[in-house]
Design brief:
two-stranded antiparallel sheet
Length: about 375
């Protein structure tokens, strides 16, 4: 559990206006900047970060759960992307310009986003084709980012780029990270997407000069910095999914108590009752896992990857099964949210690192038990 003071901040900030902005955003298919500004004015980010360079995971998951209850992946992911960019600047901003930018983002006087994915690279950040090279007393950044969420409303993009003077695509030692003003780039028309409609995601073309102090991570450190920042996003997605699943299961259970088929409530049909109980049991485990990670208190790339990959698969299953149990009315676009939640949940398995990429991180950190294995084989040979 997070401390009561931050719970109070969140409870006051996520008021009826946030709900109204969220619902209107789903209709307009545009992210409401005023929602972010409202959260900033209400102290959501100021209380979360205070004078810290590292986030308190209790607070991080508390905010994620609050976002998850809104029932909009677009709003949840958009807010957490801004917050993940703050995390990068808070830890790695080593000059006045970057530190001030972090403070402006915490107050939401400036909105931040992250430019990582390119058509050539996707989740492969080492394959970035956007280049950075020294020019005068600063740097020139040139390239094209395929998918940059929040770019239509952001003031700065944290751009993953590659040193044009050394290294080649696929080499982590050439990856850098820089803060680029959106006023100096060309932001394209937001895409029409399968789900998460209000999460304004657009292509961005970059050919601009930035001062030296806008360089967040020099070549050879950029991949580690952006990976650390994306871990915050992955933790947040897991927390949002846990809360969203609780909402979906609660509504589906109410439907099962209310609807009668073949002379008895849906809940009284054993197959359906056990199906939703199995889903609830696994969502409970996810929630307990998040509490355990928060208690440990450390950002860990493998843990973030594990939580995000497993929660995304679970969330997709919960959305599908709840829609199925809810019945034909849930499939209709008549104001009920199930069809939206079903479409939105797919984003979790793609955005912020696809399942396979995250599981590769998990695999790379696994350690074989060679000693026990050799002892076992020795017994077999002696038999």
């Amino acid at each position: 559990m997070t401390d009561n003071s931050y719970d109070d901040v969140l409870a006051k900030a996520f008021d009826d206006r946030v709900v109204a902005w969220t619902e209107q955003a789903e209709l307009d298919k545009r992210f409401p900047r005023q929602l972010l500004e409202h959260l900033g004015a209400a102290g959501v980010f100021a209380r979360k970060w205070e004078d810290r360079k590292l986030t308190e995971l209790e607070h991080h998951f508390a905010l994620a759960r609050q976002l998850g209850t809104l029932g909009s992946a677009a709003i949840g992911v958009g807010v957490s992307l801004h917050d993940s960019a703050i995390a990068i600047l808070r830890r790695f901003g080593r000059n006045d310009f970057l530190r001030n930018l972090a403070e402006e983002a915490i107050a939401v006087e400036k909105v931040l986003c992250i430019g990582a994915s390119e058509e050539s690279g996707g989740s492969d950040l080492q394959n970035a084709q956007t280049m950075i090279e020294p020019e005068g007393d600063g740097y020139r950044v040139v390239g094209h980012k395929k998918f940059v969420s929040l770019s239509p409303i952001a003031d700065y993009i944290l751009v993953v780029c590659r040193d044009a003077t050394s290294g080649s695509a696929g080499e982590s030692g050439s990856v850098a990270l820089a803060a680029v003003p959106t006023s100096q780039v060309q932001v394209g028309t937001p895409y029409e997407k399968l789900g998460a409609g209000p999460l304004d995601t657009a292509p961005v073309t970059i050919d601009t000069w930035i001062p030296q102090e806008a360089l967040i991570a020099r070549p050879a450190t950029g991949l580690a910095v952006i990976s650390w920042g994306l871990a915050h996003e992955r933790y947040s997605v897991a927390g949002q999914i846990a809360a969203a699943c609780e909402v979906m299961l609660g509504l589906t259970l109410a439907r099962m108590y209310d609807r009668t088929q073949f002379g008895k409530r849906l809940y009284d049909h054993q197959a359906l009752r056990l199906r939703i109980a199995d889903l609830q049991a696994r969502v409970d485990l996810l929630r307990y896992a998040l509490d355990g990670v928060a208690a440990e208190g450390k950002i860990n790339l493998r843990t973030a990857a594990s939580l995000k990959a497993t929660s995304a698969k679970l969330g997709e299953e919960v959305a599908s099964e709840c829609l199925h149990i809810f019945g034909g009315i849930g499939y209709l676009q008549v104001g009920l949210p199930f069809e939206r939640w079903y479409r939105d949940m797919k984003l979790a398995r793609v955005g912020g690192g696809a399942d396979e990429v995250l599981l590769e991180l998990v695999a790379a950190a696994m350690k074989p038990d060679n000693e026990r294995y050799e002892q076992m084989l020795a017994k077999v040979e002696q038999a």
